[in-house]
Amino acid sequence: MQTLQARLRRIRPATFVWIFALALLSTIAVYPALALFGSSFQAGDSLSLAHYVRIIQDPTFLKVLRNSVEVSLLATVGATLIGASLAWLVVRTDIPGKGLFRTALTIPYLIPPFVGAIAWVNLLGPVGYLNQLYQAVTGAADPLFTIYGKWGIILVMIVYGYPIPYMVLINPLERMNAALEEAGRMSGASIMRVMRDITLPLMGPSIGAGALLLFMSLLANFGIPAVLGFPAGYYVLTTRIYSTIVNFGVQDNLRIAAALSMFLAVISFLGMGLQSWLLRKGTFTTVTGQSTQPQLVLLRQARWPAAAAVALFLILSTVAPLGGIVLSSLTKAVGVDLTWANITLKHYNSVLFGIPAIPRSIWNSVWLAATAAFTIAFIGAGLAYLIVKMRVKGGKLLSAVISVPYIVPGTVVALAFILAFIKPVMGISLYNTPWLLLFAYVARFMTYGVRTVGSSLEQIHDSLEEAARMSGGSPLRSFYDIVWPLIKPSMYATWFLVFIPSLTELTMSAILYSVGNETIGVMVFSFHQEGKAPVTAALSVVLVAMVFALNALMRSVSKDKLGF
To answer: Would you report the helix, strand and coil content of the chain in percent, each value rounded to 5?
Structure first.
């Protein structure tokens, strides 16, 4: 009989990789998902639909569900209209300052949404700067607009959501075959008629895909509804799940939250399925791969007014909120007059040196984000090679499982990890440790690594590795000499793509953190909830500065191929 060692030598290396991938994904994706699903049907020691019945019979549930759909839908419509219009102006018209506008319009995408919501509180809160200005000028006793509640959530979602359709449409607009538009103009049609009858139908699939992607992103958002909804008692599904999780006075609160999460997960899967269907059904035959530049639409007398409108939008949507949060970080207290006597740096001193939990939270965020980025870059590369190059059986299933933690909202992922690891597994306890946060980050963002490196691997022809093998190179040597140099840029890209959202992550961190393991996002959110506005503003400025610095570093390292 063959010895075990001899049998192991006969097993293909791909099999070992497949076993490792299966074990990894079972730990970070399959097991938590099953724990979440199973817990939603547990009532006491028996299986039951009691939690689902309780949720459906609760009259506030339908209101929360309606709130979620309503704010996400209205914000999606508004953000898509704005994003599509801005993309068309930047790409297809002759407005001045196009290069500057093209970059500046992506800035809100870099700002964590919960920080953006806090920034808008400093402008349109009860004692916000714009409300103070309005009351000073008009003598009114009441503020012009209070940011808390439904319409404030929609406003901020639009401001921090429009970059998604904007960036989705940039490339299709640049690559669009201009012949049909030019034919329409030569036939005497006006600019608006050409846009209505030709441009919009051509861009329809891209607009629809971008809008649906944005809708799913807004539906899963926790930070904006938490910052702007909690003070007004306005809940959506993500904040309702969070409130249920932290409401320890309710029996079976985690299992009730699990049942709530299943509703949100089903909506997410339906949305992603619809997006895939739209992309398959959409026709892109009029988008050419040739490097032809569509003829610019000459706005003539409207050039400068259009540029002024874009600049005004940037000032109101980006400069004003950032300016407001910077001012709040420099004032002695909320609502005081903006005079030199009230300007101070003491809040930055507190943030950097006076509150021990803050430097600790910054360090926690940095090492968690860096470790998650390195882990995903290397493991994601291995999984991508397994799927793209080794073409193992079940590769599509493997890719789908990797995508699940990213498709479902972060609140659902966090709850799944709590339910899966609240008790020791094989004698190992991850609950109330930073390793649970790390596992959650890796699970949520693993798809970045697989998709980014996988795209590069698809561009590497199999003949290159075959030539190396025919020359006597081992599989490992051919990978190191041929594949590795070609995918290194993608691995760098993966590192940055994972590091930045992990550094600013709030949704999962707010649920999974424990004392001593706080992240910078958790600290910003906690200080805001406690009403410590100046300290919150100072810490938010530090966080935004870190993100901008990382983006600048990414652009420098990649020679402007990555970043915004």
So the answer is: 75, 0, 25
Q: If you classify domain 43-316 with CATH, what class do you get?
A: mainly alpha
Residue 56 identity:
I
Position 174, amino acid: E
pLDDT in tens, 113-167: 888 999 999 888 887 888 888 888 888 878 888 889 999 999 999 999 898 888 8
Residue 225 has which token pair? 């509804």
CA distances to 253, 346, 434, 441 from 361, rounded to whole Å, are: 28, 19, 11, 16
Cα R_g (the chain), whole angstroms: 26
Please provide the DSSP assignment of 129-160 as one string: HHHHHHHHHH--SS-S---SSHHHHHHHHHHH
- How many other CB atoms are there within 10 angstroms of residue 11's CB atom? 10
Highest mean pLDDT among 96-105, 155-164, 416-425: 155-164
Strand partners, 43: 46
In our burial notation (b when 16+ CB lie closer than 10 A, e otherwise), range 167-189 reads bbbbebbebbbbebbeebbeeeb
Q: Which of 190, 532, 509 is nearest to 355 (CA)?
A: 532
d(CA 433, CA 453): 30
CA dihedral (141, 147, 149, 155) positive or negative: positive
The number of angstroms, rounded, from the C-alpha of 263 to the middle of its chain's C-alpha atoms is 20
Query: Whole-angstrom Cα distance, residue 175 to residue 471?
Result: 41
Tell which residue, 208, 233, 244, 213, has the closest CA to residue 153: 233
3-state secondary structure 374-419: HHHHHHHHHHHHHHHCCCCCCHHHHHHHHHHHHHCCHHHHHHHHHH
Tell me the torsion sign for CA atoms 313, 317, 322, 327: positive
